[in-house]
Design a protein that fits this description.
Elements: E1 4-14, E2 26-27, E3 29-43, E4 47-52, E5 57-62, H1 71-85, E6 92-99, H2 109-124, H3 132-147, H4 154-161, E7 166-171, E8 176-181, E9 188-193, H5 205-219, H6 237-261, H7 265-281, H8 288-299, E10 304-307, E11 315-320, E12 331-332, E13 340-343
Parallel strand pairs: 4-6
Antiparallel strand pairs: 1-3, 1-13, 2-7, 3-6, 4-5, 7-8, 9-11, 9-12, 10-11
Helix pairs in contact: 1-2, 1-3, 2-3, 2-4, 3-4, 5-6, 6-7
Bound molecules: alpha-D-galactopyranose.
Alpha-D-galactopyranose binds next to α4.
């Protein structure tokens, strides 16, 4: 019987392919080295006791009756609730949670939290995890049904399937995940904080999702993957712009894969810029603070820079050449391994 386990799940950066996951489109994210660690110890009494060390808070609930709560507690209770729903016989456990991903910054601290808690609970319950895609779906239900953010599968698949030195080309229609070498030579990818925090559940994220659903119902399709630019012509202007972003962003993902294969950094940078312009002008998820951050990146010589993640604040990702000028607050991001569990 496993009595102690340590689960780690990374956050993620997304090179390109934003707001495409819930539209059955394409994206090219990678796991980063920062993440959430859960130290779990089995307890005999049918309860989960959790401590969020970084914020100095605790929670405690009965396994079979997690009940609702807000903030980080929703993720822990949701993890127990969804695992129970999936038929896993959970054991009582104490969980000590620590993290290194900045929260609300577009680096997916949420997925790192839910994936690490789920893996820790499975480990101390001696339950074998389902395959990674099923696990990603279970984790996204925590976010959808317990936290109230209608996010897609981008973050969970990135956290679970990440590979060192590789990005993942994810096709959200087939759920096929293909590693793509992300060797940048002397070039580097950095993230820069816009200083503006975002909260998915409270932001326009759910509204964007609803707009895409409305476009689908007007076009009588199941997803925007089935739609061409010409099809969108008859939609009201706002919906037409949203659809334009999604279709062109999918194209940019495959163009970015091709650019990486040719090691064409100029082309890759241009695609990041085009993605940003589309996210700002068609998808309307940028803010003045983000625009200023993008300008700072370009001013330092970035070949391309774009808002990353759900939007409405958070981080910008930029591709820097070897001779880039100083860029205050830039943090290099490199593709790292996906989530893992070890015995303590
Ligand atoms: C957030 C969501 C993801 C994805 C991105 C936008 O990170 O959690 O599912 O929709 O926004 O690409």
């Amino acid at each position: 019987m496993t009595t102690n386990a340590i689960a780690f799940a990374p956050g993620r950066a997304n090179l390109i392919g934003e707001h495409t996951d819930y539209n059955q489109g394409l994206a090219l994210p990678f796991a980063i080295s920062e993440g959430v660690t859960v130290r779990a110890t089995a307890l005999g009494d049918g309860r989960i006791d959790a401590i969020a060390v970084d914020v100095g808070e605790q929670d405690s609930f009965e396994i079979g009756r997690p009940g609702r709560a807000g903030g980080w507690r929703a993720f822990v209770r949701g993890a127990a609730g969804e695992l129970g729903q999936a038929g896993v016989e959970l054991r009582g456990a104490s969980l000590e949670i620590t993290g290194t991903v900045p929260r609300g910054a577009g680096l997916s601290s949420s997925a790192a939290l839910e994936v690490s808690v789920v893996l820790a609970l499975l480990a101390v319950s001696d339950a074998s995890p389902p395959d990674q895609i099923e696990l990603a779906k279970l984790c996204s239900r925590i976010e959808n049904d317990w936290v109230g953010a209608q996010t897609g599968l981008l973050d969970q698949i990135s956290s679970l399937c990440g590979e060192r030195d590789r990005a993942l080309r994810i096709d959200f229609r087939s759920l096929d995940v293909r590693p793509v070498s992300l060797e940048l030579g002397d070039f580097s990818l950095v993230t820069v904080d816009s200083g503006e925090k975002h909260m998915h559940a409270g932001s326009g994220y759910n509204e964007r999702r609803a707009e895409c659903a409305r476009a689908c119902s007007e076009l009588r399709v199941d997803s925007l993957r089935e739609v061409t630019l010409a099809d969108a012509d008859g939609l009201p202007p706002v919906l037409r712009r949203r659809v334009r972003h999604v279709i062109t962003e999918n194209e940019r993902v495959d163009a970015a894969v091709a650019a990486l294969e040719r090691a064409d950094m100029i082309e890759l940078g241009g695609l990041l810029d085009a993605s940003h312009a589309s996210l700002r002008d068609c998808y309307a998820v940028s803010t003045p603070a983000v625009e200023q951050t993008v300008r700072r990146c370009k001013g330092a010589g970035a070949l391309g820079a774009r808002i990353m993640g759900g939007g409405f604040g958070g981080h910008v990702i930029a591709l820097l050449p070897p001779d880039a000028g100083p860029l205050a607050g830039a943090v290099e991001v490199r593709p790292g391994d996906g989530a893992r569990v070890s015995a303590r």
